[in-house]
Amino acid sequence: xxxxxxxxxxxxxxxxxxxxxxxxxxxxxxxxxxxxxxxxxxxxxxxxxxxxxxxxxxxxxxxxxxxxxxxxxxxxxxxxxxxxxxxxxxxxxxxxxxxxxxxxxxxxxxxxxxxxxxxxxxxxxxxxxxxxxxxxxxxxxxxxxxxxxxxxxxxxxxxxxxxxxxxxxxxxxxxxxxxxxxxxxxxxxxxxxxxxxxxxxxxxxxxxxxxxxxxxxxxxxxxxxxxxxxxxxxxxxxxxxxxxxxxxxxxxxxxxxxxxxxxxxxxxxxxxxxxxxxxxxxxxxxxxxxxxxxxxxxxxxxxxxxxxxxxxxxxxx
Length: 317
Description:
Number of domains: 2
CATH superfamily of the largest domain: Carbon-nitrogen hydrolase
Helix content: 25-40%
Oligomer: single chain
Strand content: 25-35%
């Protein structure tokens, strides 16, 4: 059956603060900032809010790294707790990305996933922080990357620089996420579509302005994007979908459309020869369609191609 999920990605500009008010004043200024910007998307009743990397970092002229980490220590979980209350009130998930202090005094660049009750249902620590961040702070590299289970699907989290590393991509691809959440300070360019396609997953990014936040399908199509003047984007995606190749499926897909019409959506991004097939009804699921019409999933087709190449007499000597 269809699994519609409404996603809001938001990344307003860094908040210029008055450090003269002390750490307490700065924390309050950051809470006020997010209280204001959440109102741009909460009326749309999203299932998931994605915030950018280090979303509660303040900014002011000549701010030092020492001051920033002292701010982190003072802030603790207060901004996360504010967002948790918003998650409870509006019954949504929130991907909260921030530098957090560990019990041993070291830090992690982390995404904490808040559920509809405001509880942390999963945490991802950035596996590939930059050399600069490691050399100028007590932040350590993360060492795990596990999908997070939600009531609408399996979520993979990555943060900024992570998007450049195939080791992490391959680790997530094996876990078959439904959605990749990308909290970042830069866009990543073609890597967004590459991650979405490789994982056969939708992709939602929140990226600091002036770059654009976007929502991408498993076949690399951008279905929603923020703008320079409106740093928010909300779209509904259907996670009850599969990716299939043109070969050996074309005639079957024609039969699917003739029988089910608008109940099944076939999206062709062109040039890729791979289609996204989605179930648009609660009468059945996309797996029911796969079974009824014997559709061959893209990964299964790739496996069959590799096996055919390895058959006796098929490979040049």
